[in-house]
Amino acid sequence: MAAKADPNKQGWEESEFPILCETCLGDNPYVLMTRQGFGKECKVCSRPFTIFRWLPGAGMRYKKTEICQTCAKLKNVCQTCLLDLQYNLPVQVRDTALNVTNDAPRSEINREYFAQNIEGKISGAESLINYGKADSSGREMLKKLARTEPYYKRNRPHICSFFVKGSCTRGDECPYRHEIPEENELSHQNIKDRYYGTNDPVAKKILNRVKGGNGSNITPPEDKTITSLFITGVEDDIDEADLKGYFYAFGEIKSVVVVHKSRCAFINFATRASAEQAIDKSHSNLNIKEHDLKITWGRPRPTGPKTEVQAATTQNVVLPPLESMQIPAPPGEAPSDFLYPSQDPTYQGSSTKG
Ligand SMILES: [Zn+2]
Ligand SMILES: [Zn+2]
Ligand SMILES: [Zn+2]
After folding, report:
1. Closest ligand, as measured to the CA of 161
2. Where is this region: Disordered (predicted)?
C-alpha cells in the first residue's frame, strides 16, 4: 500500500512513491507514476516538493499530489486528498474525536524551522498522530464514521463546465463528465483549513451528524403534518416560558408542553417550516440555562381510529428507568405511554374527532 512504502530511506522529497490513501491511488496496484522533482509549491507550507501524477484507473481523471511529504506525515494525511490515512476522514473530524491538539505551526518562519526539525523525528515513525492515546469512545466514533472501502467514484473526471452551460461541442469525445453538478462542498474548501482541521464544512457536517445521534431524528419526517419537536434533558428549572423564549425566534408556536417528571417537552409550531428551521438551527447546540438539551422530531400522528391508540397505550409497556429516557426511542418503540401523541395534551389530530 502506498502509505506503507517507506519514503524516509532517501532524503527530503526524494522518495520514489507518494503518501496516498487507497482511494486516491486507485484500484490498480501497478499504477504508473510520473515524478517531477520540486515541481510545485506545497499548498500548505509553500516549499517546493516532488509532484507525482498518475491515472487511478480506467475512466478516471489524472490525480496529483498537492502537499509535500513532510506536511502529509505531520498530520498523517494523504498527499492528494488530505484525508486521514487511517480513517479516511477529514482532519477536523479525526482531531475532534481523538481530542488531538493542533501543534503544527501556521506561521511562515516557525514552519520552516519546524519542518526541518521534524524531518529527523518522523523518519521511521509511521505517523505523529498517536491514535492509541485517545480515549476509546473517540476511536469508536472514528471507526463508525470511517469509510472502510476505497471510494473510487471520487476519482472520476470533473464535470464539464461547457456542458453545464449547455455549450459543449465535444460530445462523446469530451474527457469531462456530462452531468449536472451536485453541490460539492469539497470543492469550496480552503485546502489549508482542511489540513489544519479548522472551518471545514464537510467535517462540520459529519460532526453535526454525530452529535445529533443517528441522524434520522434530524431529517424532517416525510409526514408533512408533523410540526412538533421533542426536547429531552429538560431539567426542573427550565419552564414553558424559557422554551418559548428560545423557540419563538423560529416562528409562531402553537403550544409548549413541559413534562418535568420525564425531563422532556413538546414544542408545537404553527408551520412545518418553523419546526424545520428550529431543529436545523438547534440540534447541535441547544443550551438553555446552562443545560444541554437534545432535540428531535415529534412522533408521527396515529392514523388509525382512537380506540387503537388507546389500546396501544394501555398495553403492559415495561417502563425504563428515567435516566435511560434522555434519548427518545424511534417511532413505534415508545418507552412510555406519555410519548404517544395521543397523550400530548395539545395534540389535535383528526382521530380525536372520532
Ligand atoms: Zn508542505
Ligand atoms: Zn487520498
Ligand atoms: Zn464536455
Report:
1. 3
2. 317-354
Q: In terms of DSSP bridges, do strands 228-232 and 253-259 run parallel, antiparallel, or are they unpaired?
A: unpaired
d(CA 135, ligand 2 centre) in Å: 26
**Residue 242: band (very low, low, confident or very high) from pLDDT cuts 50, 70, 90:** very high
Closest by CA to 60, choosing from 92, 23, 90, is 23
Task: Report the C-alpha gap between 299 and 217 in whole angstroms.
Answer: 10
Ligand nearest to the CA of 44: 1
Neighbours of ion ligand 2 (CB under 5 A): 21, 24, 78, 80-81
Rounded to whole angstroms, the Cα distance separating 257 from 280 reads 21
- Which ligand has its closest atom nearest to the C-alpha of 49? 1
Distance (angstroms) between ligand 1 centre and the Cα of 351 equals 65
User: In order of start, what are the domains of the chain with their CATH numbers?
Assistant: 2-152+184-210 (no CATH), 228-353 (3.30.70.330)
Q: Which ligand is nearest to the CA of 163?
A: 3
> What is the Å distance from ligand 2's center to 63 Cα?
10
Residues 6+ apart with CB under 8 A from 39: 48, 49, 50, 51
Runs of H (alpha helix) within 261-315: 272-282, 306-313
Is 8's pLDDT higher than 80? no
